[in-house]
Design a protein that fits this description.
The chain is α+β, with helices and mostly antiparallel strands. The chain is about 50% helix and about 15% strand. It folds into 2 domains: about 80 residues, Winged helix-like DNA-binding domain superfamily/Winged helix DNA-binding domain (Arc Repressor Mutant, subunit A), CATH 1.10.10; about 200 residues, GAF domain (Beta-Lactamase, 2-Layer Sandwich), CATH 3.30.450.
């Protein structure tokens, strides 16, 4: 009798687990369908979407019908194409408006900090300067680099500055360096304009920049650009002490930094400034910038 009850309970548990797994799988399929609409701004037919996702037309039709009833997609009665509806857009825009760009970026920065267990910083490009506007820190380390939030980056000596310079045409990058100068801030600071411009070609090709004791002795960093319409509008960087971050490790970290930059691009809005992060930063003159950089990281 006891064995029969145990068998019955096991059967119920197994059935429940399978039902739960099926429910999660259906949600996953629905999310993939929503994600696919991003590639079809003019809408997409059921047959095309079925081929693209590898779902049967019958099951996909049920998913789309459910989404349509809930107001997340709509079907054009003339073309029979499916489109994203106002409801999903309203949810997205409403959330973005409530939390602001800082709230949208913070989870991405914290996830990168938790993964690397180092200091992560976000910079924006504003008025031909690179401004550090937000940070996140991993949970495990007691010794860290000093954050630069509220500081204008010396573009020739920071990884964030270099990814911005690398995104500019060479004459524009040279003009920026002529205006801002290349003061020596640490033992390995590049003070030759031609040498730095040559290095920027590698940064452009790799899609990320590395600095090795160029801003401060004992510190290294890797950064990736945040792009909008083909222009560098910001950067995300991971920095730490040299004894924890050998140069080879920075290159190994580059792919996850680039993934974080891509996630930030997805939530980035037009014309992001330091004010959007609650900072009243204004670019200081060259001497003040150099002193602030030396004292801050």
């Amino acid at each position: 009798m006891i064995d029969t009850k145990l068998s019955f309970l096991f059967m119920i548990s197994t059935t429940t687990s399978r039902a739960s797994a099926a429910s999660v799988a259906s949600v996953s399929r629905a999310m993939r369908v929503l994600d696919a609409f991003a590639s079809h701004p003019a809408g997409v037919a059921l047959t095309s979407l079925s081929t693209e996702l590898g779902y049967g037309k019958a099951s996909l039709s049920k998913i789309l019908a459910t989404m349509a009833r809930e107001g997340f997609v709509r079907r054009d009665p003339v073309s029979a194409h499916f489109h994203l509806s106002w409801r999903l857009l309203a949810l997205a825009f409403g959330h973005a408006q409530r939390v602001g760009i800082h709230g949208l970026c913070s989870p991405v920065l914290q996830a990168l900090a938790d993964q690397t267990d180092e200091l992560v910083q976000l910079a924006v490009v504003e008025d031909n300067h690179v401004l550090f506007v937000a940070k996140a820190e991993g949970p495990g380390q007691q010794m860290r680099m000093m954050p630069l939030v509220g500081v204008v980056a010396p573009v020739h000596a920071t990884a964030s500055g270099k990814v911005w310079l690398a995104g500019l045409p060479r004459p524009e990058a040279a003009a920026v360096l002529a205006r801002q100068g290349l003061p020596r801030l640490a033992s390995h600071t590049i003070t030759s304009r031609e040498r730095l411009l040559a290095q920027l070609r590698n940064v452009r090709a790799r899609g990320y920049a590395v600095v090795d004791e160029e801003l401060v002795d004992g510190g290294r960093a890797v950064a990736a650009p945040i792009l909008k319409a083909g222009h560098v509008v910001g950067a995300v960087a991971v920095s730490g002490p040299t004894f924890r971050l050998p140069v080879a490790k920075l290159h190994r970290l580059a792919p996850i930094v680039r993934r974080a930059a891509a996630e930030l691009e997805a939530v980035w809005v037009q014309h992001v400034t330091a004010r959007d992060f609650g900072l009243g930063v204004r670019p200081p003159d060259g001497n003040r910038r150099a002193r602030a950089s030396q004292a801050s990281r």
